[in-house]
Amino acid sequence: MADSDSLLETPLAGLHRALGARMVPFAGYAMPVQYPAGIMAEHLQCRSGAALFDVSHMGQAEILGEGAAAALEQLTPADLQGLKPHRQRYALLTTMAGGIFDDCMVANLGDRLFLVVNASRKAEDFALVEAALPPGLRLNILADRALLALQGPAAEAAIAPLAPGLAALSFMGVARAEIGGIPVLASRSGYTGEDGYEISVAADRAEALARLLLAQPGVQPAGLGARDSLRLEAGLCLYGNDIDETTSPVEAALTWSIGKRRRMEWNFPGAERVREELANGPARLRVGLKPEGRQPARAHTPIQAADGTPVGEVTSGGFGPSVNGPVAMGYVARAQAGDGTPLGLLVRGKPLAARVAPTPFVPNRYKR
Amino acid sequence: MPELRFTKDHEWVRQDGDAATIGITDHAQNALGDVVFVDLPEVGREVAAGEACAVVESVKAASDVYAPIAGRVVEVNTALAENPALINSAPTGEGWFFKIEPKDAGEIAAMMDAEAYAAFVESQA
Q1: In B, which residues are within 8 Å of A319 by CB distance?
Q2: A106, A136, A276, B125: least surrounded by Cβ within 10 Å?
Q3: Any idea where the domains of chain B sit in the sequence?
Q4: Tens digits of per-residue pLDDT, A125-141?
Q5: Which residues in chain A are contacts of B59 at CB distance < 8 A?
Q6: What is the CATH class of B4-104?
Q7: How many CA atoms lie within 13 A of A248 on its CB side?
Q8: d(Cα A148, Cα A213) in Å, to the nearest integer?
Q9: pLDDT tens digits, residue range A186-223?
Q10: What pTM does this model have?
Q11: How is chain A split among helix, strand and coil, in percent rounded to 5?
């Protein structure tokens, strides 16, 4: 664990302390894991009202110049040339061996691409992108910007009086706007399974924006603890836990992020492995897991078939406050991946009965 | 009611007649956050002092609970299966974990009292 003296802070560090947050190290940053309300209350607040998260530790950058989409397609199987202006798309960066280098969001802003990448991978990602850009294209790392996520069914009502244009965005729409006079770049997206916004703002205006949003009816602060349980219930992957350089897009059940055109061209890193796994099926698959009873199974819990044969490992697991029970995901051998398959999760040496379950565990409520 | 004694692992012990009741401190429940599950020892199990014999799971993580003293487990708090949140709402009352018949009651007297435990928590901050 990093020495707390060497941790980076986001532009909202002062606000977190003023709100009574408990700070923990995450990807080299001191981040709020929870506020005084607690993870359970913050999670449920996001599902019933609106929650504001600081995700400024994530990497933001833009690619400027003609042909940015084609250039970035060298690193991903996503269809970026087909991404319409003011639209955003989930993309995997893949390795030559067909593993996942990172997952990210890419938005087409008309004259440039805008990228949001994982905090734990941003240095590696930006080096990779920079090295792939031909002359005439430029990566501009936006280190002086904060990122806020306003998530939940009350997010639109909170933002509408401040920025009517943002209320009109549909899921994965992107727009520049002003919120209370503060210029922002907002997308209708998030990582909780709920409707909401991710809002990029200049670092020196971030606290004013956060305070303004927190002053709206139904908005409460939420930390990384709730963000993790929300994304797990929504069946969304955490890089480093559920996906990494050893897992392929097909194994991770993220095949939907591979563009149709890219599946005819097969010209992305790792295309050989992806093509082979699509044709013959992968050896293992990421699945949802629903343990019986109330006992959670955490990451790295071994998974057994009904007859006791080892078949995989849990990659994320915990208690789902909205499910009101334990939820998990992990990789299992393909023969064990069918919905309803009974499995044992070896928690502290005892097999905990579980079944393969469809994800999301809680229906997502995006604004289509 | 006899006073509580405390361990450096943030358990409390209270001698009630022949048995000692054990739970986790308010400081510990606050650090854990919302408790969602507890794995309790079998009644009749013989435990050594410092032996991990229960697990408390919060939304975020699982943590071991240690037997503060040697002895035999004579009762567990079955109400926690239905309502593990009692550990958060009443950590030194209804949120108790288990009772041990001590091998040596002297072990309890040697543990920290409330004042010493408060000073210990302060020193860890």
Answers
A1: 36-37, 57-59
A2: B125
A3: 4-104
A4: 999 999 999 999 999 99
A5: 39-40, 43, 225, 229, 318-319, 321
A6: mainly beta
A7: 22
A8: 10
A9: 999 999 999 999 999 999 999 999 999 999 999 999 99
A10: 0.95
A11: 25, 35, 40
